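User: Could you check the structure of this?
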Amino acid sequence: MARNVAFDQNHPLMEAGLESPIDEEGVHDSFSQLIAEQSQNGGASDSDAFELQELQRQLNEEERDNVAFLSGPGRDFQGRRQRDAECEDADTQADPLIGERWSSATLKILSSMPSRTIGRNRGAIISQYYNRTMQLRRRRQSRPAIRDFSHSARPSIRGYGIETDSADAEVSKRDRLVNNLQNLSVSDRIRMLRAMPLNVSEKGELRSLALQKEKRTLSRRIPCCSQLKYYIINGARQGWYSWLSFLHSLHLWQVPLKRVSGRFGSGVLSYFLFLKTLLFFNVFLFLVTGAFMVLPQALHPPESSVGRPYFTGLELLTGAGYFSDTVMYYGYYCNYTLRKSCRDDGGVHDVSLSNGTMPDCVSKHLSYNMPLAYFFTIGVSSFLTCIILVYSMSKSFGQSFRIDKSHSILAIKTFCSWDFKVIKKSSVKLMSENICTQFKELLAEVSHKQVKNTRCQRLWRLMVHGLAWAICVASTTACVLAIFFCSSHMHQNLQFFLRSRVSVTNPLLNEASLLALPVLVSLINLLLPGLFNLAAWMEDYESPSVRTYVSIGRNLMLKVSVLGVLCYHWLGRVAADPMTIDLKCWETFVGQELYRFLLMDFIFTILDTLFGEFLWRLFSEKVLKRRRKPVFDIARNVLELIYGQTLAWLGVLFTPVLPAVQILKLLLLFYIKMSSVMMNCQAPRKPYRVSQMTTVFITLLCFPSFLGASVCVTYTMWSITPSSSCGPFRELKTMFQAGKRWVEELEKDNPNLSVLARAHSYLVENPFFLFVGAGIFLIVIYFHSQVVDGQRKIIGLLQEQIENEGDDKKFLITRLQTIHEQKRTPARRLASQNSNC
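Assistant: Sure, the predicted C-alpha cells are below.
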C-alpha cells in the first residue's frame, strides 16, 4: 500500500501510515555528545552546557507533546478521516492494523514506536543531517573544543524543535547545513546528499548552494596566480569524466539490446547477450593465434614446389582448392626456426630433421621457433579461455542464484528503476518499455499459482511426458545413426574420389561432394528441433520457463550426440589411418571439414530465419488473416550458438584462422537475428522472468562444449601421430614432442636449466597434473556454488525472521487493543449505571 509522504507540521503521523527513513536517535545522540563535551571542558563553558541541557529538555517535552497530539483527534484530523473513509476501507482489507479505531492508549504506544516518531517535517530532516555532517567532520579531522571558538563561530543548535520550527529557523538551518556540506569532501558530500530523504529538486538545490559557496570561498582564498591551476585541474577532471562517459557510450550493441529487452523481455535478451559473450571469446582467441601464429608465418612464407590452383569461387563453400596452401590451415606452417636473414639469402632452404632448424640460417638476429610457438599458443590460449570461462561461470552463479523474491523486486522496480539522468526522447521510450516488460514478468511470477492435480491427472501427465521423451530420444538416436552410416560411407568412397579420374577431369564435382555430410548434419539440426517443439506442445507445460529448460535439454542431447559421432569420424577414422584414403596432410582435411560444417551451420540458420520466421509471418498475415507472429525459439538458437562455438574450438588446432570466420559469422548473425526478431516475432504470450538463464548458458558453454573440445584437442596433441609431409610437427611422433625437444635443447645449451627440463617432464608430460588442475577448477566452482547456496539459505532465514517479527508486532498490538477494550467496558457500564441513577 503506497501513500504520499509530506513534510508538514500539521500532518498527522498516524494518517500517513508509513515509516520514515530518518533515525531520530541520531539527533538526540548528537545533542548528548555536545552536552558531554561541554561538561568535560570545564567551567568556562557552563553557560553553553546549560543552554544545551535546556534544549534537550525542550526536545523531550516536545516529544511527549507530539505523542499527545497524535493521540488527540483534532478537527483537521477528524475532517480528513471523514473524507478518506473509502480509502481507509480499502486499506483495511490489505492490512488489519490500518484503518481501525484504536484507543488513545494504543495510539500512544503506536506513536511512541521508533518507526513512528521520526521524520515529521523537512526541518527535522535538515536538523538531523546538520548534526550528522558535524559528526562526520569531527571524524574526518581533529577539531578543537567548542570553548576555543567564539560564540558566533560555535555550531548553534538553537531552534531545533521538531514541531515548532518557523520559516526563519528553517532557512538558518539550511544555511548551516550548506556550510557543513561545503566543508566535507566530495565523496562524503555526495553520500550525505544521497542519504537525505528529500526530493531530487531540494537535493539539487542544496548541492548547488554548497558548490556556489565553495567557489566563492575558493575565489577569496586562492591567489590570482593559482586560480589558473585550479581551473586547469577542474577542466582536466571534467574532461576525464566526459571521456569515461564517451567510453560507456561505445559499449557494443547497447541500444539494440535495450530495445529487445523492452519489447521481448529477458528471455530473448539472454540470447543476444550470450552471442555477445561468444564474440568476445572469439576476438580474444583470434588476437592470440593471429599475433603468435598467423602473422609470423605470413611474414615468412615457406617455399612451395607445387603451384597454387586458381580461385573458382567454390572454395568459399568447401574451404579447399585455393585456400589449401595458405595460412588458413595447419599444413602451410613450417617446422623450422624463422630467422630474419633466411629470406634475404634467396633460394630454397632445406630443413634439418635432427633439430628442426635450417643450417643456412646462422644469423645472430632474433629467431622464432614456429613449432614451439604453435604448440604453446594453442595450449596457453586454451588455458586462458578455461580460466575466463570458470570465472564467468562463478560470477554468473553469484549473480543469479540469489534471493530475489518477486514481491521485494516489485517494490525496487517501482521506486528505484527509473534513471532520472535520461532526457533523450528515444532513450526515455526504451526505458519505459523495458520497465513495463519487467513489470509484466514479475507480475506473472507473482500471480502464478501451482495447480494441484489429482492422481489420475498426474498419472496422465507422467505418461504424456514419458511418451514425449521417448519420441525425442528415438528421433535423436535415428538421426545420429544416419550421420554415423553416412560418414562411414563417405570415408569408404573418399579414396575413390581422390584417386579416380573423376577427381582429375572434374575437380569441382569432387569438392562439391564433400558438402554432403555437412548439409545432412545441418539439415538434421534444423528439422529435429521442430519435432522437439511439437513434443513440448503435446506436454503442455504450465510454466514457460520450464518448457524452455526442457527444450534446452533435448537440443543439448542432439548436439552432443552429433558432435560425438563427428569427432569419432575425424579422429578415429581419418587421423588414425590417413594413408588408406591417400591423404598427405590429414590435419588440413579435418580443418576443411570443420570450416564446411561451420559455414553450413550459418547458411541453414539464415534459411531458418527466412523460411521459419519471415515467410511464416507473411503467410499468417496474408493467407490465414491472423496477426499472430512466431515466438523466438530461445533454446534452439542458443544451442546453435554453442554448437558453432564448439566447432570453432575444435578447429583452432587445424585451422588457426577459424576464429576469424566465427567472428564474421557472429556479427552477421546478430544483425540478421535482431532484424528478424523485431520484424517477424512477437513477445511470449505468457511473460516469464529468466533469472538463471545466462548462468545455464555459460555452464553449457563450459562443460559440454569447451571441455569436450579440450579433450579432443589434447588427445590429438598427445596421442595421434601428425602428418610426415606437412605442418610444424612433421617427423615427430606426437605434437607434444615439440615442447620436449625445445627443453632438451635448452638443457644442452645451458646445463643450469636442467631444473626446467625436470619441471617440464613432471608438470607437462605427466597427465596427472592436468587432471589435478581440472579437478582444482571443479572444486573451486563447487565451493563457490556451496557458498552462494549457504548465503541464499541465510538470507531466506533472515527474511522469514523479519516476516515473523512483523506478525508478532501485529499480534501484540491486536492483543493490546483487546485488553484495553476489556478493561474499558466495565468502566463504561459503571458510568452508565451512575448516570441512570
